[in-house]
Design a protein that fits this description.
Helix content: 10-25%
Number of strands: 25
Protein name: Cupin domain protein
CATH topology of the largest domain: Jelly Rolls
Structural class: mainly beta
Distance between the termini: 50 Å
Order of helices and strands: HEEEEEEEEEEEEHEEHHEHEEEEEEEEEE
Shape: globular
InterPro entries: RmlC-like_jellyroll, RmlC_Cupin_sf
Number of helices: 5
Strand content: 35-45%
Number of domains: 2
Length: 320
């Protein structure tokens, strides 16, 4: 296997974990598949397979779900960015998921504000996949579940320890004697999780695929960053490349770069080794490596390029 192939995770080779989170037995959420592509991810299960273990300043993961399957309400202290690789997805937020919602189509991207409860479900007709970018190397250290999610999970045999590890009574597991259950947030603590209105979220944190395709006709569209459509500094920058703005000239990466096709087939060259990737595939380019990327076939083509920055992977929701 060449060096470039060792840092490509292809869609057809993704290894899922079906017991990654506390709601793995809860009806309506019990068919989820979680994928950790680069970095440690956010899984609470020791069964989670990690494809590429490099620490690059952010994590790449994915969620696969059949129709009508949902991910339960939770919050993060670092960035959580999704773009739809396959299908149609409804995102919702607020303590009970009623503060706001919107439906994302293939290629759309959503930078979910930190500090609010959020969830998502597949509202399409087939198995769907969303790709995720999580801020920081320790993205798993910042997941907080809504209290009712923990209570529902316990009723179906799963308990989350204060150590962040899941214990499954259906497998005969119990909390170790020196580990307490994860405490539920108090009413006072829940006041710190705002019920953000829908206009404040969609207007500031969502970018639609076809808008990006138009903006990237001649130069890469800046999607997330200090001077981007979504003005944020979550520890990485996101750009969108189309046919007319592809990186056809070889450049040297100063920071870790991840290439994730949204549509079409793309030819990627890293240190003069060339391969082809498509939607659902992930490519890691390390600092000091020379790379180029361009569509390899006619037709629609879109690609997300994520680059690490020196910014801390901190809060995004300011309430303004």
């Amino acid at each position: 296997m060449s060096k470039i192939e060792s840092r490509i995770v292809r869609y057809g080779e993704l290894q899922p974990c079906k017991t990654a989170f506390i709601d793995a037995h809860t009806p309506g959420s019990d068919q989820k598949e979680n994928f950790t592509i680069i970095g440690g991810g956010v899984s609470e299960s020791p069964d989670q397979h990690v494809h590429i273990t490099d620490k690059i300043g952010f994590n790449i993961g994915a969620a696969g779900q059949p129709p009508k399957c949902r991910n339960s309400l939770h919050s993060h202290t670092t960035a959580e960015v999704f773009f739809v690789a396959k299908g149609r997805w409804r995102f919702f937020w607020g303590l009970h998921g009623t503060a706001g919602e919107f439906v994302a189509e293939e290629g759309d991207i959503f930078n979910i504000p930190t500090g609010i409860f959020r969830g998502f479900e597949n509202v399409g007709h087939d198995y769907g996949m969303i790709m995720s970018i999580l801020g920081g190397d320790d993205a798993g250290g910042g997941v907080t579940w809504a209290p009712h999610v923990i209570q529902d999970a316990q009723a179906h045999g799963l308990m989350l320890g204060e150590n962040g590890v899941l214990y499954d009574s259906k497998k005969g597991e119990e909390l170790p004697h020196n580990v307490s259950p994860m405490p539920l947030l108090t009413d006072e603590q829940l006041k710190d999780f705002p019920e953000v209105p829908v206009d404040a979220v969609i207007g500031r944190y969502v970018a639609r695929y076809w808008d990006l395709a138009a903006l990237a006709a001649n130069a890469p569209a800046k999607v997330i960053g200090e001077n981007a459509m979504i003005k944020d500094k979550p520890g990485f920058e996101v750009e969108f490349l189309a046919r007319g703005s592809a990186q056809t000239k070889v450049v040297t990466a100063d920071k870790p770069v991840v290439l994730m096709p949204a549509r079409g087939h793309w030819r990627v060259s890293v240190n003069d080794v060339t391969t082809t990737v498509s939607s659902g595939d992930t490519v890691l380019v390390l600092p000091g490596e020379r790379y180029a990327v361009a569509p390899s076939m006619t037709g629609e083509a879109g690609l997300y390029r994520i680059t690490a920055t020196d910014d801390p992977a901190g809060a995004t929701w300011t309430g303004n």
